[in-house]
Design a protein that fits this description.
- By secondary structure, the protein is an alpha/beta fold.
- It folds into two domains: about 1-175, HUPs (Rossmann fold), CATH 3.40.50.620; about 190-280, Pantoate-beta-alanine ligase, C-terminal domain (Pantoate--beta-alanine Ligase, Chain: A,domain 2, 2-Layer Sandwich), CATH 3.30.1300.10.
- Helices cover about 40% and strands about 20% of the residues.
- It is built from eleven helices and nine strands.
- It has helices at about 5-20, 35-45, 75-85, 95-100, 110-115, 120, 125-140, 155-165, 195-200, 205-215, 220-235, and strands at about 1-5, 25-30, 50-55, 90, 145-150, 170-175, 240-245, 260-270, 275-280.
- The protein has a six-stranded parallel β-sheet, sandwiched between helices. A three-stranded antiparallel β-sheet has the order 7-8-9, with helices on one face.
- β5, α8 and β6 (about 170-175) form a beta-alpha-beta unit.
- α10 (about 205-215) packs antiparallel against α11.
- About 35% of the residues are buried.
- The chain binds adenosine monophosphate.
């Protein structure tokens, strides 16, 4: 497995692979890898000949009071994990390479109708940071395919919209959410949880599945379903529920009763540790 720090070296390698007729897949990450990230690599390996994983903790997508500084950086362990799944290359750009003119630069901004709600309402500017860095990474790596997890459902919709509207020649692959046996969605942030919080955490998924079941049985009282869901999360011991909403899977606007496709999105937190989860019904 090769490790690239330089953009020209990486491009030369990708060009070389492409000249051999090989299909190149790409998985952008912020490192601190777990089985969820590795599942994206394995999924792409079924559709590509070579898979490149980038590790870059992107300062542009963190707000001023968020965990950019304390975000775990675990390159050695990440490298070992990527070796176990036979990834072909790791791309590790520096902040200076990514933002040579600082963060006040050209920004890719997907319409506010998609980026101003849910996560975007709580983390202003977050999705501009995400779409800008992903556009830059796509230009650096020039992959044929790129995988993103459905765990970050709104992020996936933002990237899909950017790719469509800017006609970026990359095929997106959406990967299902990898979960622990008890249902908790795997996340780098799970390691911030205490033993007690870790025991409560899977209830987030249980509540979403209960709502999904109610929707499947024809219940369309979205207000009551989300109210009961929020109350039970707080009763279980979460400190706060940032949101719990039943939305249209494409627009992420609140669902209307005549729809048949739904995504139930929630963030519940313990202190500063925010746990994201969603269930897609389509
Ligand atoms: P991150 O390093 O958190 O930016 O995540 C990198 C990619 O891995 C994103 O596309 C995430 O959606 C995806 N990802 C993170 N956790 C999971 C998970 N539990 N299941 C599937 N994909 C995931």
């Amino acid at each position: 497995m090769r490790i690239f720090e330089s953009i020209p070296d990486l491009r030369e390698q990708v060009l070389n692979w492409r000249m051999q007729g090989l299909k190149v897949g790409f998985v952008p990450t912020m490192g601190n890898l777990h089985a969820g990230h590795l599942s994206l690599v394995s999924l792409l390996q079924t559709q590509c000949d070579k898979v490149i994983v980038s590790i870059f903790v992107n300062p542009m997508q963190f707000g001023p009071n968020e965990d950019y500084e304390r975000y775990p950086r675990t390159f050695q362990a990440d490298q070992q994990q990527l070796n176990t799944v036979n990834a072909d290359a790791i791309f590790v750009p520096t902040v200076e390479q990514m933002y040579p003119h600082g963060l006040l630069q050209t920004v890719i901004s997907v319409p506010y109708s998609l980026t101003g709600l849910l996560e975007g309402a709580i983390r202003p500017g977050h999705f501009d940071g995400v779409s800008t860095v992903v556009a830059k990474l796509f230009n650096m790596v020039q992959p044929d395919l790129a995988a993103f997890g459905q765990k970050d459902y709104q992020q996936l919709r933002v990237i899909q919209t950017m790719v469509d509207e800017l006609t970026i020649p990359v095929t997106l692959v959406a990967a299902p959410i990898s979960r622990a046996e008890d249902g908790l969605a795997l996340s780098s942030r799970n390691k911030y949880l205490s033993v007690e919080q870790r025991a409560i955490a899977p209830k987030l998924n249980t509540v979403l599945l209960d709502i999904a079941q109610a929707l499947k049985s024809g219940n369309r009282d979205f207000k009551a379903l989300t109210k009961v869901g929020i109350e039970s999360l707080l009763l279980e011991g979460f400190d706060a529920v940032d949101y719990l909403q039943i939305c249209d899977p494409l627009t992420l606007l609140n669902s209307t009763p005549n729809q048949s496709k739904f995504v139930i999105l929630a963030v519940a937190s313990f202190g500063n540790t925010r746990l994201l989860d969603n269930v897609l019904l389509s």
